[in-house]
Amino acid sequence: MIFKISIFINSSKKEAHNMANTFVQINVHIIFHVKSTGIAMRTEDMSRIFEYIGGIIKGLGSFPMAIGGISDHIHILSTLPKTISIADYVRNIKTDSSKWIKTLDSNYSFFAWQDGYAAFSVSPSMLNATKSYIFNQAVHHSNRSFEDEYKAFLSKYGLKFDEKYLF
């Protein structure tokens, strides 16, 4: 296979055109679960936990749009910061929040998040539907397990997985 590359040089202009700013708008839906041997989040603490995680997200240069979940897992809809990778972003959220959660009460002294996570891009046209989904987690999980929800998301986004390594 032969590729032809053409380079056009405008010799009448000697000045270079550099982009003065960096613009990034990537919306991401993140899901992660408490460690299987960990302690679940208590209902009465969840709003404080979600608020704290929102502060972490802002501190990382991002914008939290929705944070919700139930006692064993969390969903986050936010913009992705332009300065760090998704892996570092999620690691920072999980590390900082688990350290803080451990300070809430002795009940949380062994609290930890699972190592893995899922992250999906969200188009602007789907932001409101995604927010609604996140804010209504209790309703969704009245008849659907986290495992079923997680597998459905992976399948919806065309990600192949082996169930024996999922949880």
Topology diagram in text:
Elements: E1 27-33, H1 43-59, E2 64-70, E3 73-79, H2 86-102, E4 118-121, H3 127-135, H4 137-140, H5 146-156
Helix pairs in contact: 1-2
Question: Describe it for me?
Answer:
With 167 residues, the protein is α+β, with helices and mostly antiparallel strands. The protein has one domain (27-155): Alpha-Beta Plaits, CATH 3.30.70. Helix content is 35%, strand content 15%. The protein contains 5 helices and 4 strands, in the order E-H-E-E-H-E-H-H-H. A 4-stranded antiparallel sheet has the order 2-3-1-4, with helices on both faces. A hairpin with a 2-residue loop joins strand 2 (64-70) and strand 3 (73-79). Helix 1 crosses helix 2. The chain is globular, with a radius of gyration of 20 Å.
Helix content: 25-40%
**What's the gyration radius in Å?**
20 Å
Number of domains: 1
> Do you know the CATH topology?
Alpha-Beta Plaits
**Number of helical regions:** 5
Could you name the CATH homologous superfamily?
Answer: Transposase IS200-like
Shape: globular
Distance between the termini: 44 Å
Strand content: 5-15%
Main β-sheet, spatial strand arrangement: 2-3-1-4
Mean pLDDT: 89
Largest sheet: 4 strands, antiparallel
Return the CATH architecture: 2-Layer Sandwich
Q: Tell me the name of the CATH class.
A: Alpha Beta
Number of beta-strand segments:
4
**Regions with little confidence, pLDDT below 50 for 5+ residues:** none
Structural class of the secondary elements? Answer: alpha+beta
Order of helices and strands: EHEEHEHHH
